[in-house]
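Sanity check

After download, print the first record. It should look like this:
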Amino acid sequence: MLKYIIKRLISLIPVIVLVTILLFALLKFMPGDPVRMMLGPGLKAEQYKAAEAVMRVKLGLDKSYPEQYFRWIGNTLSGELGWSSLSNRPVKDAISEPMRNTVILNIFVIILELAITLPVGIMCAVKRGSRFDNFWQVFSLVTYSMPSFFVALTLIYVVAINLQLLPPGGMPLTAYGKNFAYYVSWLRYMALPVITLTIISLAGTIRYVRNAMIDALSQDYIRTARSKGLAEKVVIYSHAFRNALIPISTIIIFSVFSLFSGSAITETVFAWNGIGQVLVKALLNRDFMLVSAMNLFFASLSITANFVADITYGLVDPRIKLE
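Expected structure tokens:
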């Protein structure tokens, strides 16, 4: 296992280098000028030209592309992500609070998703062809075909506007202090975004769990276990589900890593101050430093998730020979 981990880490080095080069190249091909975005209007011609020259030297844009690339990588590794022209402060400060809000939101989404999809997917496989299975298959097809903004707007119209049970969006106010009522209000403001993201994520995950369990239940060792007289619950959960965990673990791992990725459309519709909404605003306002930092972060998350999934396969099923 240790030898395999070392090999996988070494193989990730060229992948990371290639990703950073592509991100840097895309950043340079993007229309607009980060210096002009930071300086803004209001300066006279001579003042603007002098300020522009100073800013280009400060950002290292006066150097060649290879020098800019290595400077960008060095600054990123040291934790210096650059300056956000949108919020006029360091990028790491601009994304710290939205990152926290996104993680809090998605923790509830993942808990609900796993609490629903695992038992429902297993039951659909066990009762294949029943009314229960048919209902969830139709539900999965319908919700899978609906965009997230449609689900979000429907919930806002029905729950927030017509029934007036929950706020239509926004964030809890801190003007009156962070007392018990403030923390309770988090649940009210998070309810609709959490329900939206959970509904969208249920469709694919339920079908994934169902298909994995159907494949596991059709294996010879299941027939052998039943022929030995083992209880059906033991056959399903101790034998079939353990082997179905191999593909299911991929979904779980990527769900955990999605804690940091955010959901741009849903957060924008509900005006939730998360990392997805911040990224949309940064793209619309040509905030080059913030966009490049977030894209590199998302790429690193994807690479890390794949690496963890590979390692998990060996832990879930010892029969897999990682060597």
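If your output differs, re-run the checksum step. Summary of this record's structure: The two ends are 7 Å apart (CA to CA).
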